[in-house]
Design brief:
It is a single chain. This protein is of the alpha/beta class. The protein has a single domain (14-188), classed as Glycosidases (TIM Barrel, Alpha-Beta Barrel), CATH 3.20.20. It is 27% helix and 12% strand. The protein has four helices and seven strands; from the N terminus they run H-E-E-E-H-E-H-E-E-E-H. The chain has helices spanning 14-20, 70-84, 110-128, 178-188, and strands at 26-29, 60-61, 67-68, 88-92, 134-137, 160-162, 174-176. Strands 1-4-5 form a three-stranded parallel sheet. Strands 2-3 form a two-stranded antiparallel ribbon. A two-stranded antiparallel ribbon has the order 6-7. A hairpin with a 5-residue loop joins strand 2 (60-61) and strand 3 (67-68). Helix 2 (70-84) packs parallel to helix 3 (110-128). The radius of gyration is 20 Å and the shape is globular.
Length: 196
């Protein structure tokens, strides 16, 4: 601001306005956890869109090397809620995977169902057992799209398959994956029925 000689008007009462009008809720995205180390050269590194971290040998990883850690979501929820005492809204959560169309035309993405099931259960535990106030949850995303982090189409997150490859070829036809009907049931039961 100083380098550009910009002036931002700030009246005396503005401090009180800012103090009295804080946020109503805290939103965040959660996909995986990270591990820190004083000596990161000692362990294998994860792949990541943002930055790599040391591999946690006790966790499974996605097709893109992201650590799958539902307990990490519960811990994150507790940490944020304990600190700010504001309702939470998880705006992104999901699993990027290489989905395969079977000979019968189906897409059996049980790995996605398992990922979401465990993360939804972790949210329920945070709410029911730990007292976290969670006001909402959305997955990323409902339909396959180009990955923001890698620019690939083959990194699929959706409940609906889109016939398109990394080079932009395909019919663009849509097809429900197995996870579509499972998640439809999860929504209809407000997360009570997580069975596959």
């Amino acid at each position: 601001i100083e380098k550009r000689n910009a002036k931002i008007p700030f009246a005396e009462n503005d401090v009180n306005i800012l103090k009295e009008n804080t946020v109503d809720f805290i939103s965040f995205s959660y996909y995986s956890s990270r591990v820190s180390s004083a000596n990161p050269d000692k362990g294998k590194q994860t792949e990541s869109n943002i930055f790599a971290s040391v591999v946690n040998p006790y966790l499974d990883t996605s097709d893109w090397g992201w650590q799958i850690d539902p307990l990490g979501l519960r811990i994150t929820m507790n940490e944020i809620y304990d600190r700010y005492q504001k309702p939470l809204f998880i705006v992104e959560n999901g699993l990027g995977a290489k989905d395969k169309i079977e000979e019968d035309g189906s897409i059996q993405d049980d790995y996605r169902i398992e990922y979401l099931k465990k993360h939804i259960q972790a949210m329920k535990d945070a709410v029911d057992e730990d007292g976290v106030d969670l006001m909402g949850y959305t997955t990323w995303g409902c339909i396959d799209l180009i990955s923001n982090g890698t620019g690939e189409m083959e990194k699929r997150y959706g409940f609906i398959y889109v016939d398109r490859d990394n080079d932009g070829h395909g019919t663009f036809k849509r097809k429900k994956k197995k996870s579509f009907d499972w998640y439809k049931k999860v929504i209809a039961t407000n997360g009570k029925d997580l069975d596959n």
